[in-house]
C-alpha cells in the first residue's frame, strides 16, 4: 500500500478495546498505523461488557468492522420483554422488603428505557478476539512496552522508545494504554499525583455463570433481563452476555486503603461476598452462591481524585482510560473511549490531510492542533463521567437502604440516576462531529493568521488557556 | 359575588409567598378562597429572592397580578452586561488564587446563561407586601393558627379548627404553611420524623447593603451582576435586589447539631463570619465587612432526611415548603412552590367544576382526585430539588478548594452544577399543564367506570399505589 505524502503515521500505545477500535477506525481511513501492546497476547479482564445504542452508532461511524466484531462475539440484546422490543435497565431493591408469601420478591425501583436494541452485551474476551481480526496485518506489535516518548519541536517526528531497547518514529502518538498508562506518566511527570490511579474504595467480584443455573436461582424473568440490585454498601448487576451465559458483578464498599504498589487483583472468596450480603434478598444470595468458591477481588481505581489536567501535549494525546479512567458503575468507560476515538477519526486523516495540503502545515502541526480540539471536545463530558460514576455508586449503595425509616429518602435518588444515565445514552455524536470540525477549522484558521503575522513556522499550540472569555478582575 | 353550585370553597393555610400566589390564582379563577395566617401581620424572613424566567412564566399563567406584585416591588433584572441582554449566574473562586498584581482578582469558573431577562430579583418583604395588595378583600384572615383538620369521608365538608377555638368549613384544604407546617404534622402524625424539619448542617447570614458601598468593596463589575463565590466549607452569593441595594448571603458548614426545640434563628456576629472566611479572597472579605456587626444566624433546615411520603390525603394537600422544604442553595424553593400552584390552578376550578357538573361527582371527590394528580405531577421534581440543593451546596463547599493539588478535581464539578441549574430553569410548564389535565381526566374517567360498576358513590381515592406497572416477583 502506498500513502499520499500528507497521510500521517500514527503510533497507538496499548491494545485494549479502545486501542483496537482506534486502530480499526484509522486503518479504515487509510492512516498508517502501528499499534504497540506490551503483553504477549491480547487479554481482557472482567466478564461482560455492554454498549448502549449511542455507542454502537459511534462504532458504526468509526468502522463497520467494530460492530461486526461486537456481534460476531456473540453479543445479545438484553432486557427484552417478549412483548416489548425495547431494552431496559431495571433497578430493584436488593435488601430487605421481603414478602412472606413470596421469598423471591424484590421491590422494583426504576426502569430505564434504552430504546429499541438499546443494550448490546458481550463477553469481553470474545469481543477483543474478534476486534483483533478486524485489524490489518502488520499493524499490531506485541511485547512492546513503552519506556519514553521524545517529542522535540524541531524534529519532524516523535520517537517512541521501548523497554527492549528498540525505538520507532511516528507523526504522532495516541496512547490508549489504560488506567495504568505509561504515556500519562511521561506527559505529566512521575511526581504528579494524576499520573497514578486512585483507589475508589470499592472492590468488585465478577463471574460468568451458565444461564440454566441462574434461572433456578433467581427465576426466569430476572435471568433474561438486565437487573441492578441496590442496597446498603453494595450492589449487584447481572445481564446475559450471550445466549447461554450470565455475567454478574458484585461491588462492595471498602473503607480501607489499597496501596498503589499492591496488585489491583487479590484472591477473594465467595464466602467473603456472602458475608457482605448476609441480610440481602434471597435471589441475590442465590445468585452469589453460583459464583466460584475462589474468585478474584478487583480493587476499583479511577482518576477521580487527581484528574488529568489536559489530555494532550504536543503530538501526544491520551485516549480512553489513559485520559479519564472511571469506576465502572455507569457501565460506560469503554463507551466514552469509543466516543474519544470517533472524535479523533473525525479529524484524522481527512481534515489533517486537507490542512497539510492546502495550508502547507506540517503533519505534526496539523496533528498538534487536532489534539487541542480533541481535548476541548472531550474533556468536560469525560470528567463528568468519572465524577458521576462515583456518585451513582454512592446512590446505589446508600446506607439508608438498611433503615426502613429512610427508605422514602433512599428511593428519591432515582430521578438523579435517570438523568445521569440519559446524559450518557442520549449522546448526540453527530453534534460532536460537527463541533469537532468547526473547532478544528477555527483553530487552524487562527494558527494560519498568526503564521502570516509572525512570518515564522506555526507550532499550532494555540488556545491552551482554560480561562473563559468573560475573564475579569474587579 | 355569587358562585355556581359546583365552585369549590378552598381554605388555604399559611400566608407566605406561595400561599398568597395560590390565593391570587384561585380568586382570579372565581374560587371562593379563605386564607388563614397565624401571624398578626405578614412578614418575610430573608433578604432578597430571585426568580428565573420559567417561574415568571408560571406566575403569568397563575395571575398577572403576581407578576405585577413582583415588579411593583422594585424587582430588577440582574447579571446584565451592558452589551448583553441576557442574565447570567457567575461562579467564581472565592478562596485563594490571589494575584500579586491584582488583589481583587478571582478566577471565573462558570457562567450560566439564564436567557433574556432570565433573572428577576426583589426584596422579599416588598414582594410580599405587594402580593397582599393583589388579594381581594375578605380572603385573608390573620391571627388564625391551625390546630386540627377534620376530614371525614361521610361529611360534605372538611373542618379546620384553630387555636382560638373557632372553626370553619371548606370543600378542601391546601396547606402552604411552610417548613414547620402544622398541616403536615396533622396528616403524617406527630410520631413521623417527616413531620419535622431536619437540620442540613449549614447556617446562613443575610444582609441588605447599599450599592455604593458594595462598589467600593468589590468593584463595579461584580456589584451589578449576580455572583456566587465558592470555597472550602462556605459560599457567598450576592445580587442587586433593586436599583440601590445588594442582597448578600453567606452559607457556612456547621458540623454540630441544632436541636429542633432551639429557635432556628440565633444571634450571630460579623466577626464569626469573617473568622470562617479568614483566608478567602479580598473582595469576599470586603463584602462581609459591610454586614452589620450583629446579625441573625439562620439554621438551614429542610425535608431531605425524612421526605414526606405523599403530598395529599383525602381533601387536604401540602404545597410548597410544607410538602418539600429545600435548603436554599438552588435559589428555587419558592419557584417550585409557584409551579405547585400552577399545577393546582390547572385543575381548580375549571376541571373540577366540569367533572362535578358532567359526572355528578361531589366537589370533595373531584378535589380528592385533583390532589392525587397534583401529588403524581409534582412529587418527583420537587424531591429532586431537595436532594439537589444539598448536593450543589456540597459541590460549592468542597474542602478540595483549599488544596491546590485538588483544584482540577474541584473545578470539574461545574458540568454537574450546570445540568442541575438547567433542569430547574428549563422547566416546561406547558407540558406540566397538559400532563396534569390528561392525568386528571384519566383518573376521574377511571373512577367513573368504577362508579358505574359498583353502583355506589365513588371516593376517587384511586391509584395511590407507587408500584410501577412492571411490578414482578420471580
From TrEMBL, chains A, B:
GO molecular function: FAD binding; oxidoreductase activity
Domain of life: Eukaryota
Protein name in the entry: FAD-binding domain-containing protein
GO annotation, biological process: secondary metabolite biosynthetic process
The keyword Flavoprotein appears for this protein: yes
Pfam families assigned to the protein according to its UniProt record, in alphabetical order: FAD_binding_3 (PF01494)
FAD-binding domain location: 9-386
Keywords, comma-separated and alphabetical: FAD, Flavoprotein, Oxidoreductase
Signal sequence region: none
InterPro entries: FAD-bd, FAD/NAD-bd_sf, FAD_monoxygenase
Amino acid at each position: 500500500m502506498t500513502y499520499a505524502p500528507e497521510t500521517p503515521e500514527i503510533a497507538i500505545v496499548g491494545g485494549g478495546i479502545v486501542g483496537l477500535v482506534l486502530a480499526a477506525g484509522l486503518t479504515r481511513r487509510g492512516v498508517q498505523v502501528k499499534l504497540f501492546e506490551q503483553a504477549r497476547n491480547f487479554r481482557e479482564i472482567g466478564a461482560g461488557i455492554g454498549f448502549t445504542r449511542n455507542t454502537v452508532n459511534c462504532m458504526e461511524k468509526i468502522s463497520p468492522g467494530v460492530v461486526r466484531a461486537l456481534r460476531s462475539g456473540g453479543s445479545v440484546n438484553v432486557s427484552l420483554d417478549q412483548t416489548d422490543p425495547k431494552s431496559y435497565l431495571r433497578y430493584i431493591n436488593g435488601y430487605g422488603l421481603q414478602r412472606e408469601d413470596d421469598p423471591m420478591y424484590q421491590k422494583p425501583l426504576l426502569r430505564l428505557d434504552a430504546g429499541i436494541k438499546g443494550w448490546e452485551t458481550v463477553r469481553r474476551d470474545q469481543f477483543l478476539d474478534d476486534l483483533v481480526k478486524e485489524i490489518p496485518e502488520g499493524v499490531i506489535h506485541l511485547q512492546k512496552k513503552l519506556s519514553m516518548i521524545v517529542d522535540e519541536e524541531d524534529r519532524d517526528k516523535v520517537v517512541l522508545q521501548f523497554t527492549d531497547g528498540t525505538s520507532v518514529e511516528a507523526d504522532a502518538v495516541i496512547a490508549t494504554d489504560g488506567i495504568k498508562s505509561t504515556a500519562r506518566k511521561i506527559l505529566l511527570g512521575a511526581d504528579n499525583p494524576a499520573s497514578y490511579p486512585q483507589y475508589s474504595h470499592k472492590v468488585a467480584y465478577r463471574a460468568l455463570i451458565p444461564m440454566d443455573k441462574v434461572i433456578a436461582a433467581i427465576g426466569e424473568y430476572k435471568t433474561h433481563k438486565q437487573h441492578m440490585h441496590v442496597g446498603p454498601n453494595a450492589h449487584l448487576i447481572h445481564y446475559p452476555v450471550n445466549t447461554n451465559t450470565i455475567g454478574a458483578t458484585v461491588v462492595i464498599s471498602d473503607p480501607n486503603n489499597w496501596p498503589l504498589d499492591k496488585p489491583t487483583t487479590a484472591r477473594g472468596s465467595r464466602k467473603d461476598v456472602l458475608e457482605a450480603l448476609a441480610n440481602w434478598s434471597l435471589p441475590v444470595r442465590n445468585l452469589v452462591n453460583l459464583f466460584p468458591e475462589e474468585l478474584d477481588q478487583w480493587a476499583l481505581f479511577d482518576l477521580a481524585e487527581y484528574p488529568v489536567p489536559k489530555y494532550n501535549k504536543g503530538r501526544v494525546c491520551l485516549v480512553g482510560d489513559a485520559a479519564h479512567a472511571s469506576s465502572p458503575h455507569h457501565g460506560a468507560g469503554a463507551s466514552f473511549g469509543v466516543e474519544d476515538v470517533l472524535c479523533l477519526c473525525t479529524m484524522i486523516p481527512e481534515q489533517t490531510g486537507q490542512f497539510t495540503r492546502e495550508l502547507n502545515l506540517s503533519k505534526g502541526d496539523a496533528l498538534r492542533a487536532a489534539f487541542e480540539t480533541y481535548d476541548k471536545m472531550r474533556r468536560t463530558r469525560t470528567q463528568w463521567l468519572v465524577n458521576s460514576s462515583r456518585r451513582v455508586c454512592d446512590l446505589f449503595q446508600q446506607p439508608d437502604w438498611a433503615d426502613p425509616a429512610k427508605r422514602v429518602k433512599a428511593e428519591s435518588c432515582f430521578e438523579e440516576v435517570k438523568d445521569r444515565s440519559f446524559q450518557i445514552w442520549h449522546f448526540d455524536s453527530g453534534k460532536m462531529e460537527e463541533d469537532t470540525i468547526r473547532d478544528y477549522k477555527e483553530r487552524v484558521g487562527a494558527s494560519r493568521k498568526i503564521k502570516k503575522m509572525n512570518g515564522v513556522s506555526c507550532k499550532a499550540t494555540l488556545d491552551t488557556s482554560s480561562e473563559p472569555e468573560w475573564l475579569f478582575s474587579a
